[in-house]
Amino acid sequence: MAKFLRAGARGTEIPAIVAPDGSHRDLSRFIPDLAGEYLAPASLASLDALDPLQLPVLDPSFRVGPCVAGTSNFLAIGLNYFDHAREVGAVPPPEPIIFNKAPSCIVGPYDDIVIPAGSRTTDWEVELGVVINQDCSEVSVERALEFVAGYCICHDVSERHSQIERGGQWVKGKSFPGFGPLGPWLVTPSEVPQIANSRLWLEVQGQVMQDGTTAQMIFTVSEIIAYVSQFMLLRAGDVITTGTPKGVGLGRKPEIYLKAGDVVRLGVDGLGIQEQRFTLHPRDRSQ
Hints:
Blueprint: E1 3-7, E2 14-18, E3 24-26, H1 41-48, E4 74-78, H2 82-87, E5 97-100, E6 106-107, E7 113-114, E8 122-123, E9 126-132, E10 148-155, E11 158-159, H3 160-165, H4 171-174, E12 180-181, E13 186-187, E14 199-204, E15 207-213, H5 221-228, E16 239-241, E17 263-268, E18 272-279, H6 282-285
Parallel strand pairs: 4-16, 6-12, 7-18
Antiparallel strand pairs: 1-2, 1-13, 2-3, 4-5, 8-11, 9-10, 9-16, 14-15, 14-17, 17-18
C-alpha cells in the first residue's frame, strides 16, 4: 500500500502520495482531500492502484500539512506505556485512560509551535497516531484493525501546569494551538506490518530524550479502538494517539521543559520524521 500526505499552505492543502523516487505526487484529480469517505478501504485501494510516477510532481518547497483532514474527534490514551507510568509515579491503569485534544490544535509536522503565554512547563511526547477509515461503534478487538486507514506520528505537546494544576480534565493542557502535529505521512497498515514493535524516539536540541518501542504499550491498537468505540461513534478521519514512552520532561529529575528556540525532532519507524521549532508567545515578547 502507500504513504499519503497533504501539501500546501494552511487551509488549502491538497492530497498527495509519496512516489518510489521520494517525490510528492498530486492526487487532487482523484480525491478532494484525505478526509471522510475518501479514507474508506475501497477509496485508498483505488489510489494505491495508481502509478505515482505518472502523476504530477508537487513543488518540493510546498509545506507539508497534517496528514488527515476533517477530524471530528482527536482522542488520546494516557499512561499507556509501562515505563512512562512508572517515571511519573503512576500505577499502570487497569483500563485505557481516554482524554481529548481539541481538533483545532492539529498542525503540520514541520510547523513552528508557539509556547503558551507565561508557560514554563511545555513538554514533549512522541506517539503513534491511528486514523479511522469509516464510522464505527462497539467494534470487537478482533475486527478493530479493519477500521484503521493508517498510522502517523503524533506529537502530543503538553502544557503541564494547565494539565495538572488547573483542575478538571487533561484537555486543558493538551489543546493549545499547534499542540497536535500529525504526519508527515498517513501510512497504510500493510506498509508497516511491524507497527506493534516499532521504535519511536524524540530529540530536543539534538539530545535524545525518548527512545522506546510500541511493544511497551499497555493496551494495543486493537484494544484501544475496541475500548473507545464502546463510548462513542468514531468517524472517518478521527485520530487516536496511543500514548508515549518514558523520557518526558515531567518525568525527569529535575524536570526539564521546552523554551523558545528549542528544536524538537521525533520519529516512528516507517512513519517518517517530524521537526518543530518552539517560539515565544507574542505576549511574552512584549514583556
